[in-house]
Design goal:
Blueprint (H helix, E strand, L loop, with lengths): L7 H4 L1 H11 L18 E9 L2 E8 L9 E7 L9 E7 L3 E7 L12 E8 L2 E4 L4 E2 L19 E3 L10 H5 L3 E7 L12 E6 L2 E6 H16 L3 E7 L32 H17 L11 E4 L6 H4 L7 H22 L4 E6 L14 H15 L5 E4 L13 E3 L17 H8 L14 E6 L7 H16 L4 E6 L6 H4 L16 H8 L5 H12 L3 H6 L4 E3 L7
Parallel strand pairs: 9-10, 9-19, 10-13, 13-14, 14-15, 15-16, 16-18, 17-20, 18-19
Antiparallel strand pairs: 1-2, 2-5, 3-4, 3-6, 6-7, 6-8, 11-12
Helix pairs in contact: 5-7, 7-8, 10-12, 10-13, 12-13
Length: 552
C-alpha cells in the first residue's frame, strides 16, 4: 500500500531542487526554539508515572537564587516554551528534591504527553532554570501488554491481491509493513458510519469504513501468523483532519506525499494525542480488530521535501517538531499497549544528499538522539532503509566505491556496510534506558531486476543473510511483492512478481532463505557472486567497483 512512485520521488533530484527553490527564504529563524541548555543550573533527572501521580526528581549542584526559595514545576504543551503552561507543583528549592502532582490521565488536563520544566520566581518574574523533561514510563498505565508476534526477520511490503491465495505463507513471510495515512482515517460528527472516541475530555471521530478496511487487513495478516508494522503518514488531504497539518506545511501550497504533523497548535496536538491513543487501543490484539506490534512515525523523515514537509530548511527546527510528534505518539501508544515498539525512520543517505531538500541521515539521527537524551530517554527504535546507491544499482554485494565506504565518512550506508550503522548505535549515548542496543528495523529495502534477474536473486540473498547475521536487526522487509509500473520507469523493478503476476527467480531464493532449504539459496547466490556467500558475510568482505554505479 506504499505510494506508487515512492522510490521515484527519492531519485529525481531536479524535482527536489524546484521544491527547495519554492521554500527559499522561509527559514525557521522566525520560529525561535530553546535548543541549547545554556548552562541551566537545575536538572530534572526523571519524570515517572506512579499510580495516579507523576513524580519528578529534581537535582541542582547550586540552588539558584529566588524571591521565595521555591521550585515551580510547569507543565507545558509541546507547542509552549518557557514558564508559560500550568504550574502543577511547588516545592522547597534544594539540591535534591521530589515533586509530585496528579497525572490527570484522560482528562482535559492530562499531563501524559506534556513536557515539564522548573522555574524560580526572581524579581517577581518566573525564570526557567532547567531543561524540559517528559514522562518516560507511559507503559505503567497500560491495561494490556499482549505477547508480541516476533517470529523472525523475513518481511515484505505485501501486494494485497496476493494474500488470500497463500502466497505469503509460501514465501515464509514473518512480518509485513503497511501504510496508514492518519488524516485518511479521520471523520466528523454526522458523517455516516463515523466512529466516536472520547479522549482527554473531547470527542473525536474516525471513518468507520476505513477502519473496517484496516481491521480486515491487520486481522488477515495476524491469522496467517504474520507480524504487522504500521507506518503513520500524514497525507494532508482530508478536510476532517486539516488541523493535523503543521502551519509551515500549509503556507505555500507545496505538494508532496507526506507532511509534518501539527505540534504547533492546540487543535492539532490534541487531535494527534487522540489518534495515537485510539490506534494503539484498537490494534492491541484484544478488541477483535487485529494486532499491530510496531508503529513507525513518518517515513524517511530526513527527506523533508518528500515525507516530512515544512517550508523551513533548518535541521534543528524540523528535528525538533518531529521529536515532539514522536513523543506524543510514543507516550499515548505505550500508555495503551505496553508491548508496542515505536520507531523513527531515516533513509540511507548517511553523509550525502541526492535531494537538496533533504537532511543528511546521520545528522538527523544525531539531533534526534540529542533531544531524546536531553528531555528524557525512552526506548525508541530505529527504522532504517539501506537501499543500494544509486537505488537502481543491481549489486548489493559490490557497490560503487565512490558511494560505499567502510568508515563513518561513507556517503551511503547500504547492506554492504550496514555494520557501520550497527556499531554506531552501540555507542553509549544511543543506548536505551536499560543500557541496551535499540531495536533496529530494516523496514524497507529492495533490489531491481531491471538489469538481470540473477543480480536480484543474489542481492536479496546477500541482504537477507547479512541482516540475519546481526543480532540487533529485528526486521528485513523487502520492498515490494509485485513490481510497480511507475517505479519501473526508473529501472526499479523491485518485486518478486512481475507486472503480469509471474514469479521471478528471486521469489524462489527468498522463499528458501531462513528455512531448511537455505543451503540451496546460498549455493545459488554464491554461484552468481563468484564467492562463497557465507565467507563473504562472516568475514565482512566488502567488494567495491569503480565508477558511480550507473549500469550501462
Amino acid at each position: 500500500m506504499n505510494k506508487a512512485g515512492k522510490i521515484l520521488t527519492k531519485i529525481i533530484a531536479t524535482i527536489a531542487a524546484v521544491a527547495v527553490g519554492m521554500c527559499s527564504g522561509t527559514l525557521a529563524g522566525n520560529h525561535p526554539l530553546h535548543v541549547q541548555a545554556s548552562g541551566r543550573p537545575v536538572a530534572i533527572s526523571s519524570c515517572l508515572v506512579s499510580g495516579e501521580n507523576v513524580i519528578c526528581e529534581i537535582k541542582s549542584s547550586s540552588v539558584p537564587s529566588s524571591d521565595d526559595g521555591k521550585f515551580y514545576v510547569y507543565a507545558d504543551e509541546v507547542y509552549e516554551d518557557g514558564p508559560t503552561g500550568s504550574i502543577v507543583a511547588k516545592v522547597d528549592a534544594g539540591t535534591a528534591v521530589s515533586a509530585s502532582f496528579p497525572l490527570n490521565y484522560n482528562t482535559a488536563q492530562s499531563n501524559l504527553s506534556r513536557k515539564f520544566l522548573i522555574a524560580v520566581k526572581r524579581n517577581g518574574q518566573m525564570v526557567q532554570v532547567s531543561d524540559e523533561h517528559y514522562i518516560t514510563n507511559p507503559e505503567a498505565l497500560a491495561a494490556h501488554a499482549p505477547a508480541r508476534m516476533d517470529r523472525g526477520i523475513k518481511g515484505i511490503l505485501p501486494d494485497i491481491t496476493k494474500v488470500s491465495g497463500g502466497q505469503l505463507e509460501e514465501l515464509g513471510i514473518q512480518q509485513v509493513v503497511y501504510n496508514m495515512d492518519v488524516d485518511e482515517i479521520c471523520s466528523a460528527q454526522g458523517v455516516a458510519g463515523a466512529v466516536a472516541y472520547n479522549y482527554n475530555g473531547q470527542t473525536y471521530y474516525f471513518s468507520g469504513s476505513r477502519l473496517a478496511d484496516y481491521d480486515a487487513t491487520v486481522k488477515g495478516f495476524n491469522n496467517r501468523g504474520i507480524q504487522v508494522t504500521m507506518v503513520l503518514l500524514n497525507g494532508g488531504r482530508n478536510p476532517y483532519a486539516s488541523d493535523l497539518l503543521h502551519p509551515l506545511a500549509r503556507e505555500d501550497g507545496f505538494s508532496c506525499p507526506g507532511y509534518a504533523l501539527n505540534v504547533a497548535e492546540a487543535a492539532g496536538t490534541n487531535h494527534l494525542k487522540a489518534i495515537a491513543a485510539f490506534l494503539a487501543q484498537r490494534y492491541d490484539g484484544t478488541n477483535g480488530c487485529g494486532q499491530v506490534d510496531n508503529w513507525i512515525v513518518g517515513n524517511e523523515v530526513n527527506a523533508r521535501t518528500s515525507w516530512w514537509y515544512t517550508n523551513s530548511t533548518s535541521l534543528d527546527f524540523n528535528v525538533n517538531i518531529y521529536v515532539k510528534a514522536f513523543r506524543i505518539v510514543y507516550n499515548e501508544m505505550k500508555s495503551m499497549n505496553a508491548s508496542v515498539r515505536i520507531y523513527n525512520s531515516i533513509d540511507q543517505e548517511w553523509n550525502r544528499k541526492s535531494n537538496p531538500g533533504s537532511f543528511l541521515a546521520k545528522e538527523y539521527l544525531d539531533q534526534f538522539n540529542y533531544y531524546i537524551n536531553r528531555e528524557g530517554n525512552i526506548d525508541w527504535g530505529l527504522s532504517y532503509h539501506p537501499y543500494n546507491s544509486p537505488l537502481y544499482d543491481p549489486y548489493a554485494w559490490n557497490g560503487p566505491a565512490v558511494w560505499v565506504k567502510n568508515n563513518l565518512s561513507t556517503p551511503y550506508i547500504t547492506m554492504q556496510n550496514i555494520d557501520i550503522l550497527i556499531n554506531y548505535m552501540h555507542q553509549r549515548q544511543f543506548l536505551n534506558p536499560n543500557g541496551e542496543v535499540r531495536s533496529i528495523s530494516l523496514a524497507e529495502i529492495g533490489y531491481t531486476s531491471s538489469f538481470g534477474t540473477s543480480e536480484q536473486e543474489a542481492s536479496i540473498a546477500y541482504g537477507y543473510l547479512k541482516a540475519a547475521s546481526l543480532p540487533d536487526v529485528d526486521a528485513f522487509i523487502l520492498f515490494r511483492q509485485t513490481d510497480d509500473a511507475h517505479e519501473m520507469e526508473s529501472h526499479l523493478a523491485l518485486g518478486l512478481y512481475d507486472l503480469n503476476g509471474n514469479k521471478k527467480p528471486a521469489f524462489e531464493i527468498y522463499k528458501n532463505l531462513g528455512t531448511a532449504n537455505e543451503a540451496a539459496a546460498k549455493a545459488r547466490a554464491s554461484e552468481i557472486i563468484g564467492m562463497d556467500i557465507d565467507q563473504m558475510i562472516s568475514q565482512n568482505i566488502i567488494w567495491t567497483r569503480g565508477g558511480n554505479g550507473v549500469v550501462q
